[in-house]
Amino acid sequence: MFLVKRDNFNKTYIIKGLITSLFFSAFIYLAHFNIEYKILDTILGLVSLYLVLKIDKKALFVAGYFIGIFWFFWVGNSFEYYNLGYLSFFIPLFFGLGYGIIFFIIGVFDFTFYRAFILFVLSFIHPFGFNWFIPELLFINSFLDTSKISFALILLSLFILIEFPKKTKILAVISLLFTYTNSGQYIENPPNIKISMPQLNISQDQKWLKSNIPDLVENNLKLIDNAIKEKKNLIILPETVFPVVLNKRHELLAKLLKKSHFIDIIAGALYLEEGNYYNATYHISKGEALVAKKVVLVPFGEEIPFPKFLTDFINKIFFDGAEDYKKAASPTDFVINGVKFRNAICYEATSDKIFQNLDGVKYMIAISNNAWFTPSTEPTLQKMLLKYYAKKYNITIFHSVNGSKNTIIRP
């Protein structure tokens, strides 16, 4: 009988945790299939947080485990391009275990206020520098605001709903009203620049083959020529669209410099300086090239976020001794036709650091290569994060991507 009761209990918290994780992750998958209704996302977000505040800690561990998988299963896709395909199965489990522990911590004490407070605090904490888990992102396509203050008010309203007497539960509604936003109707006009953003879909396994590089380069040059014919002022090409160390390809760079007298060119490529490799954006204009080095590197992708001795060991075991990319100390701005743009390369476009010292900059050019992860929900989650930061910093983002859809994201 004891075993039967224990088995039923296990099923109970597994079911509760799984249901919570489904509510907590639904907004990503709905958006992935272009199902976006503000009222639906509002309800799903509120229900998911309510469940996090109510279910027992063992169920919370299960919830966190599946949330880690549902949000980040796609991270493992990239490892096959490092000849580490055998890790693709274990990476989602690692994320599941990590977020399972985080959610278990939320439920250590069965006090609603404690849970709400820890959840709010965790929205500021990003283990190993990976900051794509932002709980307020639940409301990015809803009627509710995604600022930290609004997230605190949402948690407060749920705390009131759960803990306060019936006569005072109206305070929960009042608290929630302060988080209402109508930002979806806000329209920021783009700068007076005719921009070309060609859609590229080069698979990652083909992108870096030496035999394919001449054709890829030639196609890029044709895209630039077409933009010139269409009398565009600017062409934006994705991250590492030139799969070479561009500043060492003098003949190719000379061609781009020549074309830049007719159009400004933004393109991603590698940059080599003093023996260090950088993931970079090249702004080629009027016969000159300005290089913007990446500021925020991808944890475990472009850098290992551990002390050097451990980093060297991991790189030796898993990456044939390759060194981490180097990074710049501060962001770079490009001036195009008198308009200033902040540069961002993929992951760093979803980091607060790249938005430091904007000094009135209202536009960003973000370039990405999502072929590492597609097909998956990664581009959907990335787009939501870009919307989050566009709203947070009141900036319009021109996002040029290989492997998923180009977008212009307004605050």
Automatic annotation (TrEMBL):
<keyword id="KW-1003">Cell membrane</keyword>
<keyword id="KW-0449">Lipoprotein</keyword>
<dbReference type="GO" id="GO:0005886">
    <property type="term" value="C:plasma membrane"/>
</dbReference>
<keyword id="KW-1133">Transmembrane helix</keyword>
<feature type="domain" description="CN hydrolase">
    <location>
        <begin position="198"/>
        <end position="411"/>
    </location>
</feature>
<keyword id="KW-0012">Acyltransferase</keyword>
<dbReference type="GO" id="GO:0016410">
    <property type="term" value="F:N-acyltransferase activity"/>
</dbReference>
<feature type="transmembrane region" description="Helical">
    <location>
        <begin position="60"/>
        <end position="79"/>
    </location>
</feature>
<dbReference type="InterPro" id="IPR059109">
    <property type="entry name" value="Lnt_membrane_dom"/>
</dbReference>
<protein>
    <submittedName>
        <fullName>Apolipoprotein N-acyltransferase</fullName>
    </submittedName>
</protein>
<keyword id="KW-0812">Transmembrane</keyword>
<dbReference type="Pfam" id="PF00795">
    <property type="entry name" value="CN_hydrolase"/>
</dbReference>
<dbReference type="InterPro" id="IPR036526">
    <property type="entry name" value="C-N_Hydrolase_sf"/>
</dbReference>
<comment type="similarity">
    <text>Belongs to the CN hydrolase family. Apolipoprotein N-acyltransferase subfamily.</text>
</comment>
<dbReference type="InterPro" id="IPR059110">
    <property type="entry name" value="Lnt_campylobact"/>
</dbReference>
<feature type="transmembrane region" description="Helical">
    <location>
        <begin position="116"/>
        <end position="134"/>
    </location>
</feature>
<dbReference type="Pfam" id="PF26365">
    <property type="entry name" value="ApoNAT_membrane"/>
</dbReference>
<feature type="transmembrane region" description="Helical">
    <location>
        <begin position="146"/>
        <end position="164"/>
    </location>
</feature>
<keyword id="KW-0997">Cell inner membrane</keyword>
<dbReference type="InterPro" id="IPR004563">
    <property type="entry name" value="Apolipo_AcylTrfase"/>
</dbReference>
<feature type="transmembrane region" description="Helical">
    <location>
        <begin position="12"/>
        <end position="31"/>
    </location>
</feature>
<keyword id="KW-0808">Transferase</keyword>
<dbReference type="GO" id="GO:0042158">
    <property type="term" value="P:lipoprotein biosynthetic process"/>
</dbReference>
<keyword id="KW-0472">Membrane</keyword>
<feature type="transmembrane region" description="Helical">
    <location>
        <begin position="85"/>
        <end position="109"/>
    </location>
</feature>
<dbReference type="InterPro" id="IPR003010">
    <property type="entry name" value="C-N_Hydrolase"/>
</dbReference>
